[in-house]
Amino acid sequence: MNKKDLRELLEKVRSNEVDIETALNSLKDLPYKDIGLARVDNHRSLRNGFPEVIYCEGKSLEEIKAIITEMLKTNNNILASRASQEIFEMVKEIAPDAIYHPRPKMIFIKQQELEETNSKILVVSGGTSDMPVAEEAAVTAEALGNKVDRLYDVGVAGIHRLLGSLDKLDQASVIIAVAGMEGALASVVGGLVDKPVIAVPTSVGYGANFGGVSALLTMLNSCASGVGVVNIDNGFGAAYLASTINLQIENALKGSD
């Protein structure tokens, strides 16, 4: 149940369209639903503004099916990350309208329309090899109701490609910078803009990259102010953080109207 559904239920109680016992029954599983193998958090959209997201790695097909089956009972959109093609084929059996994004390995099930933000999140990536993580960020941000733009393959090895797209940087409210190798892209972007930059180190790179640790350390040691860093390959986490920032911007703009 999201805030809109809860508000509608309370309005119906106030107008005597729904009695108190019926309302209580509707709310009995609101905090969470214990399905044995998992406790599905039905309250997260009320607390955080976004519903729970299913992280598929490490879960069996039966576990994922049970969790999604339970989540389908709510009116929330459903997002599943790190999902294989096999998982998607199983999900299609219980949710025929599910959409699969193969590059970031994400499944999206739309159960309600979201009003798209006016403020924009821009996802910037260093190289084409960083695109799976960049797309995880972009797809997540879109699923959470954000207007999203992409600017890919603009790494510092050919910095003129980035400098030729300064208009896109200027139009964004929040920027997600995704890069592997030495991870310098986040510092360059952070030095060009007056908005928050969320840096995502990727595991792309040769041996001394240490699976993304070199990019992580570069981003943590950025000399550009206003750069925050998430974990290696965590495009989802970057998008979630960017979405919460964007939501505050949207709320501030509505309050000033």
Automatic annotation (TrEMBL):
GO biological process: 'de novo' IMP biosynthetic process
InterPro entries referenced in this protein's UniProt entry, alphabetically: P2CMN_synthase_LarB, PurE_dom
GO molecular function: hydrolase activity
Pfam family, one: AIRC
Location of the PurE domain: 119-251
NCBIfam families with a match to the protein in the record: LarB
PANTHER family in alphabetical order: PHOSPHORIBOSYLAMINOIMIDAZOLE CARBOXYLASE-RELATED, SLL1489 PROTEIN
Name of the featured protein: Nickel pincer cofactor biosynthesis protein LarB
Gene this chain is encoded by: larB
